[in-house]
Amino acid sequence: MAPPPHRRPGFSRRAQYGLFATYVVAIAGTVVAALLLTISVVDPTGFSRLRTLGTEVTAPVARVLSKARQSTQAVTHSISAYINAASKNETLEKELKASRNALIEVQALRVENDRLRSLLNLSDGDMQQVAVGRLISSTASSTRRVATLSIGRNFGVERAQPVRGPAGLIGRVIETGPTTARVLLVTDSENLVPVMRASDGLPAFSAGLGNGLVLIKPLNLGESPFKVGDIIITSGNGGLYGANIPFARVIRQTSDGALGLPFADPANTPYAIVMKPYLEEARAEQQMLAPDGKTKEVAE
Amino acid sequence: MKIPVSAIRLPTRPGREYESRFDREQSLLKMLAIPMASVILASMVTTLPVFSAGPLLPPFGLLMFLSWRLMRPGLLPIWSGVPFGLMDDLFSGQPFGSAGLLWSLAMLIVEIIDSRAVWRDYLQDWLIAALLITAVLLGGWWIAGIAHAAPEPIVLFPQIILSILLYPLVVRICARLDRWRLAT
Question: Residue A50 is nearest to which of B81, B90, B92, comparing CB atoms?
Answer without folding.
Answer: B90
